[in-house]
Specification:
heterodimer; A: about 375 residues; alpha/beta; 10 helices; 19 strands; globular; B: about 1050 residues; 36 helices; 40 strands; about 20% strand
C-alpha cells in the first residue's frame, strides 16, 4: 500500500506503508544509529516523534523480548528506506513490521532517508505527517503549520504508580535510589540494579516530601520526551531535593536539574540522536563516544548565574553535555551512559553516583 | 598532546612486493602517512622495495630508499639517516616483522631509534600465539581452546583431548600461509607439518574450530591519551572458516543486534587499550550464531587490508590519522578531514551498505586448488556501495570483471546439482554464484543454510534476487519492473539477457522512462553534518547531491581489482594522470572500484566515483558530469577494453584513438601496419576455427606461441610444440573467447627487450629500454629485467629506437606506448605493441626522472612534446643500474606449476638499484625473498635440452664452493662432463624429506618441453614453493644467480643510496 510523508515545508515524499495504516502527526527527527532500532522504537523519549533512521536497512534481526526499553512502541511514526522482509536472528520473536502494526504505529518505507535527513539538517526539525490516505496531500502543509504538538508527553509516559525493583545481587542492595520517572528507559533501571541499587520508581508528579519519606540514599532524574520547561512540577520537586540527597540526572533529567537551579534550556536545530556523539570530560580531557537522544539542550551562558559547572562538552558542536553542582553532590549528563542502543563505556557514571551516596552515608554516620 | 618534538625524522617501512595477503592497501596507507607526517613538519625517510608504488615516488617522502626490506639494509639506512623514530605499522606484516627483527638485533637501541605506533611488546603480544592467548585471558576476553605446538606429536595429543574439527594457524605468516581446517588425524599430520614448516619460528597454534560462526571485524583507533574509537565494523557473509581476505564482507554488520554490536565493540576497545596501540588496530571475532558466546580470533596492531577497506567504506582515513597519532597527536585535537568541521574523535555512521568481494587468480591458474579455507588465495578485491544490499552485491559482482551477468557466471547454468552442493559445502571461489544457482533450482533457504552456514538474512536477499530474475524472464518488462530491477542492482546487460533484449534497447527504454541513478556522498556521518568531500556512489534514489562544475574536466578510468597481469602499477599511472590533469587546470574525475588503492583515496582526484568499470556504470557518470573526455590508457586492459564501446556511445576518448588501439590489438591489421612500416615481426596467423590448425602447422614451424587476442597478462598463452597440442589448445581456447580469434606466432628464441615511450604522434620520447634476463618465451611480467640494457649492441639499440618512432607515428599514438621486442642475432623483431601504460612505467618514470604519465596526459590534452621541451628518441641512460625481479605467491596457490612460461604468474615485483649490475641483481633477489646463499648444496634437475647450459653452470657453482646434487639423468649428464655430482633419489618421499630438511640451498629445475605431466619436476617445484626453498625454472635466471653470487664475492660493496641521491648522480 502506498503511503506519503508530508512535511510542513510542503515537501511530499512517497513511499510504501508498513506497520499500521492510517495517519500520524509528529515532529520528524533522524537517528544515525546503525543498530538498535528496537531500542529506539521503545524509548519513551521519542514519544510524539516520527523517527527517520539514516541507516537504510532496518529490521534485519527482527524484534526480541529482551531489548525493549519500555513496555510498548513509543515513537509516533517510523521512517525507513527498507524494512527488511526476511529478518534472521536467534533471539527474534517477531517481525519488525508486524510489531509496529500491533502497536498501531504507522511506518513508511522506500523513502530516500538521506534526502530527508539533509532536509532536516538544513531546516531543523519539521512537523510532518505519515499517511496512507494519499489523496489531497498538498493540503497537509498548511494543516501542519497550524498544528501544535501536544506538550503533556511526559504525563503519557511516566509511571502512573510507584513500583520497586530489587538490586541485581539478591539481598545485597547497597543503596536505595528513588527514580523520578519522566519516561525512563529500561536500560537505566538495569544499569542501576546492576550497580547494586534498590530502586523505587515514582511518578514524575511525586512531591519532594513523598520522596524523602521513602528514605532514599539518592535520587535519580530520568530521561524523557519533549520540552523540559513544561515539566514544571518536576522542576519544583528537584529544586526542593537539592542539598537533601545526592542527585544524578540523565537527558531530560539533566535539563530539569539545570532549570531547577536557575539555568535555561533551548531547542536545538535538529538535536543529537545516535550512538556516535563524542563527549569530552573537561577535567581529564578524555573523550567517550556516547549514545544520545535529545532535541533540547542547556544554554551554557545561562549557567553563569547558577552554582552549576560544565563538566562535559560535545566535541562536534561544543554544546553542554554534563554539569555538576559546585559544592553539593548533584550532577547530570545529557547523554545516555546506560547505552541501549549505543556504546556502554560511560557506565562508570553510575559508580560515581554510588560514590556520592557512599560519602553521604559516611557523613551521616559521623 | 601535540606533535612530539623528539621525533623530527621518522623512518617509515613499506610492505614490499605485492603478494597474496599483502597488496596495494599498504601503498595507500604508506602514502597517506607520508603526506600526513610531512604536513605536520616531520621529515620522512621511506624504505620499500616495491617500485610500482606511489609511496616510492621521489616526491612522497623526503628521502626514499628502494632497497630490500631486510635488516642489514635497514641498518645501513638507519646508520646513514639517523632517524629519531621508526614507524612500523604501515608496512603490513612485513613492516612489523622487520621492526621486530631490528629490535632483536639491537639495531634500534644502537642508533637510539624509538619504535612508534606500537612497541615491541605490543607486537609480540599480538603476534606470538602464546603471548596473545595469555593477554586475552588476562583481559578476560575469550579465545578458542588451543595449544601452541612445535611438533606434530603435541598437536596430536591436543586433538585427542579436544576432538575435531581443529584449526591450524602458523605463527608469523602472511595471509594465514600454511594453515587450514583439520577434520581428522590424517588431515592433521599433513596440515600441521606444512604449518610448522611455513612458520618462520616453527610454531603453530592448534585450536578448537569455530567454523560456521559469524565472523565479525572491528577497526579501532587509540591515541596516547587513551581515547579510543571504532571506525567501522564488518561482517563476513562467509562464516568463520574462510580467510577474511577470501570472504565476501559487508559493512556495517547486518545481522547483529545493538547488544551484540556493543558487546564486541567494547571488547575491541578493551583489547586496543590493553595493547596500548597508538594508531589503528584490527580485531577479529567469531560470534556464535545461536548465543552471545564469542571468541577473539585475531588482533592486528597495525593498519591492514581491512583498515583500508574500512577507510574506503566509511570515508575515515585510518592510515593518515594513525600516522598522526603515532607522532603524539590525540584524536580530540584533530578534525574529521571528511566533514572538515567536526571532531576526528567520533565514530562514523554509514547510511549505505558496503560489499567487498575478493578477486581470485584461478582464471590464470586453472590447475590450482580452487577451494577456499584459512589460507588466503585472492590477489585483490572490489568494493561496492549502494543504499541496498542487493544493489551493492550486484555492483561488486560486476566490478570483478569475470563476466558476471547479474548473479550468473558463464558456468552456473551447466552445473549439476551435485556440483552445486560440492561448491556450497567444500567452498570454492564460485560459491556465491552457486548459492544463486541453487535457488534457481528451487533449493530451500534451510537447505542452503545447512550446507553453507551462511545467515539466512543473506540467503533471503540472494533468493529475492533470483526471484526477480525469474520475474524479468517471465513477465513483460514494464517501466515499474525495470525500475525495481534497477533499484535491486541489476545492470542493463543483465536485464537485457533476462528479457531477451539488447543492452542498447534496455538502455533506451530506461532513459526514456527517466530511470537514471543519482549520486550520493560518502561523508562519515550519515548526512548529520555538511561535508565537502567529493566521494560519491550511485543509487536509484530520489535526490542527487553532486553539483557539476562548468570548467574543463576529464574522467580517468581506473584498473579495478588487482589480479595477475594487472597490478598496482596501473593505479600508480591513474594517480599520476589525476595530478597531471590538476596541474593542467583540468578537473580530474576518477572512476574505480578497488578499495586498496591510492586512486580511490578521496583526496587524490577532484571527484571520486566509486563505481564498477562497466560501460553502463561509466556512461552514467559521464552523463552526469558531461566531461570533456575520458582517459583510458592508464587503467590497464580494464580501461582499454571500454574504449571502443564508449567511443561508440559517443564519448570522446582522449589520447590514442580507438582505431589505433584496435590496430595494435588486431593481428591482421597490426601485421599489415608493420609490413607497411618495414618493421620485422615474428611470423604469425589468426585462427578462428580448429580446422585451420593443420594449415598453420605447415606454414609456421613449431614451436609456436598461441594466445587469444585482447587479453590481460598473457592469459591462456602457451608455447605449443606440436600439432596435437595446437589442436587441443584451439579446442579449449575457442570456447574461452568466441568473439576474438586465436593468435599463433612463430616462437623466436632470442633476447627480449621492452620500451616505454610517450608520443604525440610526431615526437616520440623513449624513456628507456629494459632488457629481459630470461629469453623470449617467459612472460615479460615474470622476467628479471635490467635497465639500462647490459648486452645490446648500438645497432640493436638503433633499430629499437627507429622502430618505436615509426610505430608511434604509424599508429598515431598520443600518450603512452609499450613495445616488446625480441632480438635474434642482431635483428630486432616486434612482438607486441600496447598503446597504453605498462607494468614498467612506474620504474622507468622513477629511474629516468621522465614524468611519462604526466607527459601522456598533457599530450592527450593537445600539448606537443617539443613544446614541453622533449626531443625525439631514446633518453640518456641513467648512471646506475636497476633490476626488476618478479615475486610469486606460489606457496599460497597449491598445485600451481611454478615454472615460467608465456603465461604470467607473478603477483608483484621488486627493484634492485645499485651503481653496479651485479649488486643490483643481488639486491633484486634479496628483495624478492630469494636469499642467495654463499654455501651449501644445490640440486639440479633439468630438461634434456637445458643440460649443456646446466653443465657450465654446475661447474661455476662448484667453483664457488657449492656442492652439486642432481636427479637421475641430469646427474648422469653432469657426471659425464666431469662435474662432481651426487645423485639423489627421485622418489617423492625422498625429495619431500630432503626439501623439508632444507638439504638444498637452492634448486634448478626446468620443465621438460611439452605439457605432458612430468611428475618429478612438478613435485620438486611445488615442494620448493611450499617450503620456501629458492627454485629457478629458467636457465637464464640461474645464470643471473651465478652472476650475482660472483659479484657478492667481489671487491665492491653494494651501495645504499636514496632515490634522490641516485637522481643527483
Amino acid at each position: 500500500m502506498k503511503a506519503a510523508l508530508v512535511l510542513e515545508t510542503g515537501k511530499i515524499l512517497m513511499g510504501e506503508s508498513f506497520g499500521a495504516t492510517g495517519e500520524a502527526l509528529g515532529e520528524v527527527v533522524f537517528n544515525t544509529g546503525m543498530t538498535g532500532y528496537q531500542e529506539v522504537l521503545t524509548d519513551p523519549s521519542y514519544a510524539g516523534q516520527m523517527v527517520c533512521m539514516t541507516y537504510p536497512l532496518i529490521g534485519n534481526y527482527g524484534i526480541n523480548s529482551m531489548d525493549d526499553q519500555s513496555e510498548k512502541v513509543q515513537v509516533q511514526g517510523f521512517i525507513v528506506k527498507e524494512a527488511t522482509r526476511n529478518p534472521s536472528h536467534w533471539q527474534m520473536e517477531k517481525n519488525f513490521s508486524r510489531t509496529l502494526a500491533q502497536s498501531g504505529i504507522v511506518g513508511i518505507k522506500g523513502i530516500d532517508t538521506r534526502a530527508l535527513t539533509r532536509i532536516i539538517r538544513e531546516h531543523g526539525v519539521l512537523r510532518g505527517v505519515i499517511t496512507t490516505e494519499i489523496e489531497h496531500l498538498d493540503e497537509w502543509a498548511d494543516k501542519l503549520k497550524g498544528w501544535i504538538a501536544p506538550t503533556d508527553v511526559v504525563a503519557k509516559v511516566s509511571t502512573p504508580e510507584i513500583y520497586t525493583l530489587p538490586a541485581d545481587q539478591t539481598g545485597q542492595a547497597l543503596y536505595h535510589v528513588v527514580v523520578i520517572d519522566f519516561g525512563i528507559k529500561r536500560n537505566i533501571l538495569h544499569a542501576m540494579q546492576a550497580s547494586g541499587f534498590r530502586l523505587t520508581v515514582v511518578p514524575y508528579t511525586t512531591s519532594m516530601e513523598q520522596i524523602l519519606d521513602l528514605e532514599p540514599d539518592g535520587v535519580f532524574l530520568s530521561n524523557g520526551p519533549g520540552d523540559p520547561k513544561v515539566v514544571e512540577v518536576g522542576i519544583e520537586t528537584i529544586r526542593g531535593l537539592i542539598g537533601k540527597r545526592p542527585i544524578f540526572g540523565i537527558c531530560l533529567g539533566h535539563q530539569l536539574l539545570s532549570l531547577a537551579l536557575g539555568g535555561d534550556t533551548y531547542k536545538m536545530k535538529f538535536g543529537h540522536r545516535g550512538g556516535n556523539q563524542p563527549v569530552q570530560d573537561l577535567q581529564s580531557k578524555r573523550v567517550t563516544i556516547t549514545s544520545q537522544n535529545h532535541g533540547y539542550a542547556i544554554a551554557e551562558e545561562s549557567l553563569e548565574q547558577t552554582p552549576l559547572l560544565v563538566t562535559h562538552r560535545n566535541l562536534n558542536d561544543q554544546s553542554v553535555e554534563g554539569v555538576k553542582h559546585c559544592d553539593l553532590p548533584v550532577f547530570s549528563v545529557q547523554y545516555h551512559p546506560e547505552a541501549g542502543p549505543g556504546p556502554s563505556e560511560s557506565l562508570y557514571l553510575f559508580e560515581e553516583f554510588a560514590q556520592l551516596m557512599q560519602e553521604r552515608r559516611a557523613q551521616h554516620a559521623t | 598532546m601535540p606533535l612530539n618534538p623528539e621525533w623530527k625524522k621518522v623512518l617509515v617501512i613499506g610492505s614490499g612486493p605485492i603478494v597474496i595477503g599483502q597488496a596495494a592497501e599498504f601503498d595507500y596507507a604508506g602514502t597517506q602517512a607520508c603526506k600526513a607526517l610531512r604536513e605536520v613538519g616531520v621529515e620522512v625517510v621511506l624504505v620499500n622495495s616495491n617500485p610500482a608504488t606511489i609511496m616510492t615516488d621521489a616526491k612522497t617522502a623526503n628521502i626514499t630508499y628502494i632497497e630490500p626490506l631486510l635488516p642489514e639494509y635497514l641498518e645501513e639506512i638507519i646508520s646513514k639517516e639517523r632517524p629519531d623514530a621508526l614507524l612500523p605499522t604501515l608496512g603490513g606484516q612485513t613492516g612489523l616483522n622487520l621492526a621486530m627483527e631490528l629490535v632483536r638485533l639491537g639495531v634500534l637501541k644502537r642508533y637510539d631509534v624509538d619504535l612508534i605506533g606500537c612497541d615491541a611488546e605490543t607486537i609480540y603480544k599480538a603476534e606470538d600465539r602464546e603471548a596473545f592467548k595469555e593477554t586475552m585471558l588476562e583481559l578476560d576476553e575469550p579465545v578458542a581452546e588451543s595449544v601452541i605446538v612445535t611438533t606434530l606429536e603435541e598437536g596430536e595429543e591436543f586433538a585427542q583431548k579436544q576432538g575435531f574439527p581443529l584449526i591450524v594457524r602458523p605463527a608469523y605468516t602472511l595471509g594465514g600461509t600454511g594453515g587450514g581446517i583439520v577434520k581428522n588425524a590424517k588431515n592433521l599430520a599433513e596440515i600441521l607439518q606444512r604449518g610448522l614448516q611455513s612458520s618462520p619460528i616453527g610454531q603453530c597454534l592448534v585450536e578448537r574450530s569455530v567454523a560456521g560462526w559469524k565472523e565479525i571485524e572491528y577497526e579501532v583507533m587509540r591515541d596516547a591519551a587513551d581515547n579510543c574509537i571504532t571506525i567501522c565494523n564488518m561482517e563476513n557473509i562467509d562464516p568463520v572458516g574462510i580467510h577474511t581476505g577470501d570472504s565476501i564482507v559487508v559493512a556495517p554488520s547486518q545481522t547483529l543486534t545493538d547488544v551484540e554490536y556493543q558487546m564486541l565493540r567494547a571488547s575491541s576497545l578493551k583489547i586496543i587499550r590493553a595493547l596500548e596501540v597508538n594508531g589503528g588496530c584490527n580485531v577479529q571475532f567469531a560470534l556464535n550464531p545461536t548465543s552471545r558466546e564469542y571468541v577473539v580470533i585475531e588482533v592486528n596492531p597495525r593498519v591492514s587490508r581491512s583498515s583500508a577497506l574500512a577507510s574506503k567504506a566509511t570515508g575515515y582515513p585510518i592510515a593518515k590519522m594513525a600516522a598522526l597519532l603515532s607522532v603524539g597527536f590525540t584524536l580530540p585535537e584533530l578534525t574529521n578531514p571528511v566533514t572538515g568541521n567536526t571532531s576526528a574523535c567520533f565514530e562514523p555512521a554509514l547510511d549505505y551498505v558496503v560489499v567487498k568481494f575478493p578477486r581470485w587468480p584461478f582464471d590464470k591458474f586453472p590447475a590450482a586448488d580452487h577451494r577456499l579455507g584459512t589460507q588466503m588465495k585472492a590477489t585483490g578485491e572490489v568494493m561496492a556501495i549502494e543504499r541496498t544490499l542487493e544493489g551493492a552485491l550486484l555492483k561488486a559482482a560486476r566490478s570483478l570483471e569475470i563476466g558476471t551477468v547479474g548473479l550468473r557466471i558463464k558456468a552456473s547454468g551447466g552445473w549439476t546439482e551435485m556440483e552445486i552442493e560440492d561448491k556450497l559445502v567444500r567452498i570454492d571461489h564460485e560459491r556465491f554464484f552457486a548459492i544463486a544457482e541453487a535457488f534457481r533450482r528451487d533449493w530451500t533457504i534451510l537447505e542452503v543454510q545447512m550446507l553453507t552456514q551462511i545467515d539466512p538474512f543473506y540467503l533471503y536477499k540472494i533468493r529475492d534476487l533470483v526471484l526477480l530474475e525469474q520475474r524479468l524472464q517471465s513477465e513483460s518488462l514494464t517501466t515499474e519492473l525495470l525500475h525495481f530491477a534497477k533499484v535491486q542492482g541489476f545492470s542493463d546487460l543483465a536485464v537485457a539477457k533476462l528479457t531477451g533484449r539488447s543492452e542498447e534497447a534496455v538502455r533506451t527504454m530506461r532513459v526514456a522512462a527517466q530511470i537514471v541513478p543519482v549520486y550520493k556522498t560518502v561523508d562519515t556521518c550519515a548526512a548529520e553534518f555538511t561535508s565537502a568531500t567529493p566521494y560519491y556512489y550511485s543509487s536509484y534514489e530520489e535526490e542527487d547531491e553532486v553539483s557539476v562544475s562548468s570548467g574543463p574536466k576529464v574522467v580517468v578510468l581506473g584498473s579495478g581489482p588487482i589480479r595477475i597481469g594487472q597490478g598496482i602499477e596501473f593505479d600508480y599511472c591513474s594517480v599520476h594522470a589525476l595530478s597531471a590533469l590538476q596541474e593542467a587546470g583540468v578537473e580530474s574525475i576518477m572512476i574505480n572500484n578497488n578499495p586498496e588503492t591510492v586512486s580511490t583515496d578521496f583526496d587524490t582526484a577532484d571527484k571520486l566515483y566509486f563505481e564498477p568499470l562497466t560501460l553502463e556504470d561509466v556512461l552514467h557518470v559521464l552523463n552526469k558530469e558531461k566531461a570533456d573526455g575520458v582517459l583510458v590508457q592508464f587503467g590497464g586492459q580494464t580501461a582499454i577494453n571500454l574504449a571502443g564501446p564508449l567511443n561508440q556511445a559517443g564519448v570522446r576518448i582522449l589520447g590514442t584513438q580507438v582505431d589505433a588501439i584496435d590496430m595494435a590489438e588486431d593481428r591482421e591489421r597490426f601485421a599489415e601496419l608493420l609490413s607497411r612500416l618495414g618493421i620485422p615481426q615474428s611470423e604469425g596467423r589468426s585462427v578462428t576455427a580448429v580446422e585451420q590448425a593443420r594449415g598453420i602447422a605447415k606454414e609456421l614451424e613449431f614451436p609456436v606461441i598461441v594466445r587469444p587476442s585482447y587479453v590481460i597478462g598473457g592469459r591462456a598463452m602457451q608455447v605449443v610444440e606440436n600439432l596435437d597440442e595446437l589442436e587441443d589448445y584451439l579446442k579449449r581456447a575457442i570456447n574461452l573467447s568466441a568473439e576474438h580469434p586465436i593468435l599463433v606466432d612463430r616462437y623466436l628464441e632470442g633476447k627480449e627487450v621492452e620500451i616505454d615511450a610517450v608520443s604525440d604522434g610526431e615526437t616520440t620520447v623513449i624513456a628507456g629500454i629494459m632488457e629481459h634476463i630470461e629469453r623470449a618465451g617467459v612472460h615479460s611480467g615474470d622476467s628479471l629485467a635490467v635497465y639500462p640494457p647490459q648486452s645490446l649492441t648500438p645497432s640493436e639499440i638503433d633499430q629499437i629506437q627507429e622502430f618505436t618512432c615509426r610505430i608511434a607515428e604509424g599508429l598515431g599514438i598520443k600518450g603512452l606506448m609499450n613495445i616488446q621486442f625480441v632480438v635474434v642475432r642482431g635483428k630486432v623483431y616486434v612482438l607486441e605493441v600496447n598503446p597504453r601504460a605498462s607494468r614498467t612505467v612506474p620504474i622507468l618514470s622513477k629511474v629516468t626522472g621522465i614524468p611519462l604519465v604526466s607527459l601522456a596526459v598533457q599530450v592527450s590534452l593537445g600539448e606537443t612534446l617539443k613544446n614541453l621541451g622533449y626531443e625525439q628518441g631514446l633518453a640518456p641512460e641513467a648512471p646506475f643500474v636497476v633490476v626488476k625481479a618478479p615475486v610469486f605467491s606460489f606457496e599460497k596457490l597449491t598445485k600451481v606449476e611454478t615454472s615460467l612460461g608465456p603465461e604470467m604468474k607473478s603477483t608483484g615485483e621488486v627493484l634492485g638499484m645499485d651503481i653496479q649490475f651485479g649488486h643490483a641483481l643481488a639486491k633484486a633477489f634479496a628483495a624478492s625473498h630469494i636469499p642467495l646463499p654463499s654455501e651449501g648444496d644445490i640440486l639440479v634437475s633439468v630438461a634434456e635440452k637445458d643440460r649443456p647450459e646446466a653443465i657450465a653452470l654446475a661447474q661455476q657453482l662448484a667453483m664457488l664452493g657449492f656442492g652439486v646434487k642432481g636427479t637421475g639423468d641430469t646427474a648422469k649428464a653432469l657426471a659425464l662432463c666431469g662435474v662432481k655430482v651426487e645423485e639423489v633419489s627421485e622418489s617423492s618421499e625422498a625429495l619431500r624429506e630432503a626439501i623439508r630438511q632444507r638439504e638444498f640451498a637452492f634448486i634448478l629445475s626446468t620443465p621438460t618441453k611439452g605439457k605432458t605431466p612430468e611428475r618429478t619436476g612438478y613435485l620438486l617445484r611445488r615442494l620448493a614453493a611450499e617450503h620456501g626453498v629458492p627454485c629457478f625454472t629458467s636457465m637464464d635466471t640461474a645464470k643471473a644467480v651465478v652472476r650475482a653470487l660472483l659479484e657478492m664475492r667481489g671487491q665492491t660493496k653494494p651501495q645504499v643510496l636514496s632515490l634522490q641521491e641516485y637522481m643527483a648522480l
